[in-house]
Amino acid sequence: MNTILVPGYSKNKSIQTNEIVRLEGSGNYTIFHMIDGRHFLTSKSLIYYEELLSFPFVRIHKSCLINIHYALQRKTSDFVSMMDGTEVQVSRRRKPELKKYLKCPRKPRRRPAE
């Protein structure tokens, strides 16, 4: 899946999945964090998007789903650094899965030109 439709305030918005750095759940809402710095708030839960999106999206915490292509490194065993400059906490239960993905060789992504 290359694009997804995200419900917005006045209309649905089409988003390229390869531009999503991470999704942050907040109750029944989800915040999309994009590589260009934009943020989108939607009225769908993180579970909805977890079921909709497959690899390279990985659940690393009860309130966070990341695009593994934008994960730079694990700073400590509890956090992963993302290409947008954020550090995201990794739950104990999700560490083995994340470790498996970070060990796999993958093509590094570049930040799109602004």
TrEMBL record:
Coiled coil residues, start to end: none
GO molecular function annotation: DNA binding
Pfam families registered for this protein in UniProt: LytTR
Domain HTH LytTR-type: 4-104
Annotated protein name in UniProt: HTH LytTR-type domain-containing protein
Species of origin: Runella rosea
